[in-house]
């Protein structure tokens, strides 16, 4: 969410993308969340105000899907297994469905902070 | 939402007649939005966005959608969040309100003259870019539900809504308040807004601003509003009928209404004169001096009785009648008969038109600009009695609310 990022520069440059994209893919596979059937946004820590509000704003069907994926992952965890090759989440299904909502909510919170700290003066 | 008071004027049942009053000062922006302004020399100004999207224009299966639209004013739009609009309004010291009538939904901002450009911009965004976000919908639905429950608990409101419903059925008969069973979704709202927030259904009305300045501001603010089709609304037809609402109220409510006159027509002023002469609301509590026939009758009946006349005018129809609380059928009949007799007598003594206007203002009605004194000067005693006769010839609408087994039927009153 915050921090220095060079994502745009890398995506713009063909050379850098060619070098770094395979590294990124290997990293994501090694992270292993897809082998539990989870998307990246399911793994985000939801115990913060912003992400909790964003999850509340998810459309109903997305919310149910999210809960289902988490249940499946929990079962995998309990049984100390991971998904087979067929059941592993495909890269095209790993959609960042929550990130746009998180950005929206973060903007709203920031706006609220700005207005709470506004300094007014008479002309 | 500290500075938004959407419930403030929800119960203002008297429609503001905006059309005819600004006939001499109405202009249009490039894409057809009507603009009107009165340049008063006061430090404050008020800007109102009037959209022809009242309860009359609700689709048949979406009863109550206009109520939702009213409560969605000043919510998140493409340029500003609802929070930002509220905070910025507070900072400039403005007051926002929204009001729903049978024909129009009105969003108003009262502010200082120098802040008028800001609010015109907000109105432009409201029309063109309101987001209708899903997460806001729950809050709005909650607000709507609480306003509906307030209306249901108020017999006076229920009586008037029932009278309109019986008189006009659909269109003007649609209730201003959402129904408790309304199945409105966010996509329904988006569609209703897309159909009705169009340039030919929008007017921007302001006081304390010059016509030229307002037109300039409107041209920029409403430049992205769709033009809209020329489809005419369905004409209103008066039916009349009986409504009996069973409620466990101590006081019985009875209302009788007839086909009235459309707003802005000469007959409407006759109706206003008749209404003022019948009167009903006492200006000075506990006083019986110089009081109108209906309120005198109510005073005589005692035990909390109240009778008052009403006159609603819409663009192509009207409803004229009297509502009574805590009176028996005989008492009501007698009061109306006496009022009829006294009205003619009173008018002979040339009740001044200013008195009538003052009476309306005092009763808390909005005295519309269109009700200029000249219009009233044209009303003669003959007009009033002719109008009264015409009223009685239309099929009456009777509403009876309370312990209906003890209350009379419509034909017992007439």
From TrEMBL, chain A:
GO terms for biological process: mitochondrial electron transport, ubiquinol to cytochrome c. The keyword Transport applies. The gene is QCR7_2. The keyword Electron transport applies. InterPro entries: QCR7, QCR7_sf. This is Cytochrome b-c1 complex subunit 7. Its main location: mitochondrion. Keywords: Electron transport, Membrane, Mitochondrion, Mitochondrion inner membrane, Respiratory chain, Transport. SUPFAM superfamilies: 14 kDa protein of cytochrome bc1 complex (Ubiquinol-cytochrome c reductase).
TrEMBL record, chain B:
Keywords: Electron transport, Membrane, Mitochondrion, Mitochondrion inner membrane, Respiratory chain, Transit peptide, Transport. Residues 184-332 form the Peptidase M16 C-terminal domain. InterPro entries: Metalloenz_LuxS/M16 (IPR011249), MPP/UQCRC_Complex (IPR050361), Pept_M16_N (IPR011765), Peptidase_M16_C (IPR007863). It is found in: Mitochondrion inner membrane. It is a peripheral membrane protein. Residues 35-179 form the Peptidase M16 N-terminal domain. Transmembrane segments: none annotated. Belongs to the peptidase M16 family. UQCRC2/QCR2 subfamily. This is Cytochrome b-c1 complex subunit 2, mitochondrial. It comes from Linnemannia gamsii. The gene is QCR2.
């Amino acid at each position: 969410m915050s921090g220095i990022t060079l994502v745009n520069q890398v995506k713009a440059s063909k050379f850098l993308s060619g070098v770094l994209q395979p590294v990124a893919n290997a990293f994501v596979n090694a992270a292993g969340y897809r082998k539990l059937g989870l998307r990246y946004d399911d793994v985000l820590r939801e115990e913060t105000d912003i992400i909790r509000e964003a999850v509340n704003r998810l459309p109903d069907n997305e919310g149910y899907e999210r809960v289902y994926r988490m249940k499946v992952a929990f079962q995998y965890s309990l049984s100390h297994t991971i998904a087979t090759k067929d059941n592993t989440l495909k890269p095209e299904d790993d959609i960042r469905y929550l990130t746009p909502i998180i950005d929206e909510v973060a903007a709203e919170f920031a706006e609220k902070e700005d207005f709470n700290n506004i300094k007014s003066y008479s002309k | 939402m500290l500075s938004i008071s959407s419930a403030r004027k929800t119960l203002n049942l008297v429609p503001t007649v905006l059309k005819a009053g600004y006939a001499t000062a109405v202009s249009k922006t490039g894409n057809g939005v009507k603009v009107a302004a009165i340049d008063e020399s006061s430090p404050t100004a008020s800007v109102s966005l009037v959209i022809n999207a009242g309860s009359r224009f609700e689709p048949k299966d979406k009863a109550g959608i206009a109520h939702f639209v009213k409560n969605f004013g000043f919510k998140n739009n493409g340029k500003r969040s609802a929070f930002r609009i509220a905070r910025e309004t507070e900072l400039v010291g403005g007051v926002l309100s929204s009001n729903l009538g049978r024909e129009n939904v009105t969003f108003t901002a009262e502010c200082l003259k120098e802040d008028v450009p800001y609010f015109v911009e907000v109105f432009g965004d409201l029309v063109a870019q309101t987001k209708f976000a899903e997460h806001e919908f729950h809050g709005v639905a909650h607000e709507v539900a609480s306003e509906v429950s307030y209306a249901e608990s108020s017999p006076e409101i229920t009586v008037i809504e029932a009278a309109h419903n019986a008189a006009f059925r659909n269109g003007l008969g649609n209730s201003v308040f959402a129904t408790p069973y309304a199945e409105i979704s966010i996509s329904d709202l988006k569609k209703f807004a897309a159909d009705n927030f169009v340039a030919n259904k929008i007017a921007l009305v302001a006081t304390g601003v010059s016509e030229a300045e307002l037109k300039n501001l409107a041209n920029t603010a409403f430049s992205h509003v769709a033009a809209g089709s020329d489809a005419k609304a369905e004409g209103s037809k008066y039916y009349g009928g009986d409504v009996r609402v069973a409620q466990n109220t101590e006081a019985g409510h009875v209302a009788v209404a007839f086909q009235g006159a459309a707003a802005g027509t000469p007959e409407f002023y006759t109706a206003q004169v008749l209404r003022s002469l019948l009167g009903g609301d006492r200006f000075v509590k506990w006083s019986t001096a110089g009081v109108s026939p209906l309120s005198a009758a109510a005073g005589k009946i005692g035990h909390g009785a109240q009778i008052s006349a009403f006159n609603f005018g819409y663009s192509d129809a009207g409803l004229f009648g009297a509502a009574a609380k805590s009176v028996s059928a005989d008492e009501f009949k007698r009061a109306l008969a006496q009022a009829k007799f006294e009205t003619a007598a009173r008018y002979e003594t040339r009740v001044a038109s200013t008195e009538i206007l003052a009476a309306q203002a005092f009763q808390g009605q909005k005295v519309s600009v269109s009700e200029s004194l000249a219009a009233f000067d044209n009303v003669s005693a003959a007009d009033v009695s002719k109008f009264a006769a015409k009223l009685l010839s239309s099929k009456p609408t009777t509403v009876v609310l309370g312990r209906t087994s003890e209350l009379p039927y419509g034909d017992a009153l007439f």
